[in-house]
Amino acid sequence: MPNGGKIPDHAYYANGKAIGRGGLENKGIHPGYVEENQGLIIEYGDAKVLLSEYEVLVIVALEWVHVSQLSELLGTTPFIAGAEQRSMDLLYFARINNKIGKVGKHLSGIHFVDNDKSKISQDYEMLVYKKESIRELIE
């Protein structure tokens, strides 16, 4: 979706912001949130990065689950947001205090942007498929 494009009516919102993902040249695909008339805000390399080309999440069969480490996600299926370019380590949508960020097995917690600064925390929520939607996919 180009910067300034209309956010779909059925976009997935978290804390009042549409969430999405976008690619950084030679850096992989990273999750973030959409700022109207600006673009997608992501955290990368300890900094806030603004992307003008991105995808907006429109799936409705998702929910947020509180975790403080990825091993707590037993029995759930995290929604994959992207991957690091070189290592192909998976990245997942996460949120903390109304801020959207990313987590992955290779990261030390949620990486997010707060007041234009890159931050990391160990206590966050992750976006996962609702158990009912997984059952529907299997049946």
Any overview of this molecule?
The protein is mainly beta and 139 residues long. The chain has one domain (13-138). It has one helix spanning 131-138; strands at residues 13-14, 17-24, 28-35, 39-44, 47-51, 55-56, 62-67, 80-84, 90-96, 99-103, 110-114, 117-121, 124-129. Strands 1, 2, 3, 4, 5, 6, 7, 8, 9, 10, 11, 12 and 13 form a 13-stranded antiparallel beta sheet that branches. β2 and β3 form a beta hairpin. The chain is globular, with a radius of gyration of 14 Å. Residues 133-139 have low confidence and may be disordered.
Order of helices and strands: EEEEEEEEEEEEEH
- Biggest sheet overview: 13 strands, antiparallel
The average pLDDT value, as a whole number, equals 85
**Rg computed from alpha carbons, rounded to a whole number of angstroms:** 14 Å
Distance between the termini: 33 Å
Number of H/I helices: 1
Helical fraction: under 10%
Beta strand %: over 45%
Spans with pLDDT under 50 lasting ≥5 residues?
Answer: 133-139
Indicate how many domains the architecture comprises. Answer: 1
Topology record:
Elements: E1 13-14, E2 17-24, E3 28-35, E4 39-44, E5 47-51, E6 55-56, E7 62-67, E8 80-84, E9 90-96, E10 99-103, E11 110-114, E12 117-121, E13 124-129, H1 131-138
Antiparallel strand pairs: 1-2, 2-3, 2-6, 3-4, 3-8, 4-5, 7-13, 8-9, 9-10, 9-13, 10-11, 11-12
Characteristic terms for this protein:
139 residues; mainly beta; 13-stranded antiparallel beta sheet; 1 helix; 50% strand; disordered C terminus; 20326_t:CDS:1
